[in-house]
Design goal:
The structure is a single chain. This protein has 217 residues and is α+β, with helices and mostly antiparallel strands. It has two domains: 35 residues; 161 residues, 60s Ribosomal Protein L30, Chain: A (2-Layer Sandwich), CATH 3.30.1330. A hairpin with a 6-residue loop joins strand 1 and strand 2. It is globular.
Length: 217
């Protein structure tokens, strides 16, 4: 028969080791929480200039009685096809030209109103969008040509104080039916977007890529 000998010193050592592991675990958890909070705080500070820009865009649109839909999260301005073009056409309507005459100078003035706003905006993209009606090739061509028509009207036919500065940031692109409802022909999908690209978003993206690369090393 094997005798069991209780050793108080062994038990105390095991208790001490367990306490040590718990203390280290608590310390690591605390450090992790600290860095998470620090990262969240840094992101909030990076995102602040973007919120300022979007707030200024929304405010100036309202102050000048320009009725457009501004996405409060992205700053995207959506202009419906019915305002700018006849269905299937790439030629701006008179109504569309009148709208752009009112909208573009105010929009551009916001972008260049303050150095911090101008520096935060890296690019202004005019995007043509279509509904899912028709084939993809035709829709892509239509969206590109519509964006180009808006671009040409802005820089060939309009005169406003920040025109030269805007020309350094703006480009035209077609998105076709990429973001359209594929289950039906939704007229709301036929539109032109004025989309802002922000330097703070680029910083966040770059930070995320760098962290991902570090984890894979």
């Amino acid at each position: 028969m094997q005798n069991f000998i209780w050793n108080s010193e062994t038990e105390n050592t095991e208790d001490d080791d367990a306490s040590t592991y718990l203390s280290i675990g608590d310390l690591m958890s605390g450090l992790l929480m600290f860095f998470v909070l620090l990262f969240i705080t840094a992101l909030a500070q990076i995102d602040e200039p973007k919120r300022v820009v979007i707030g200024n865009v929304i405010g100036e649109m309202k102050n000048n009685n320009i009725n457009v839909k501004v996405n409060p999260e992205t700053g995207d301005i959506s202009i419906q096809e019915s305002i700018l073009f006849a269905q299937g056409s790439t030629e701006l309507k008179s109504q569309g030209k009148d709208f752009l005459r009112r909208f573009v100078p105010v929009y551009s003035r916001v972008i260049f109103s303050k150095p911090e706003i101008e520096n935060e905006i890296s690019r202004v993209v005019i995007e043509g969008h279509t509904s899912s009606e028709g084939d993809n090739k035709t829709n892509m061509e239509l969206s590109v040509l519509r964006a180009s028509s808006v671009y040409k009207f802005i820089f060939y036919d309009l005169n406003f104080s920040t025109k030269a500065s805007l020309s350094q940031k703006i480009l035209a692109a077609g998105r076709g039916e990429i973001e359209a409802d594929r289950t039906r022909d939704n007229p709301a999908d036929r539109k032109v977007l004025f989309r802002l690209q922000f330097r703070s978003d680029e910083l966040v993206k770059k930070s995320f890529i760098n962290k991902s690369q570090d984890k894979n090393k």
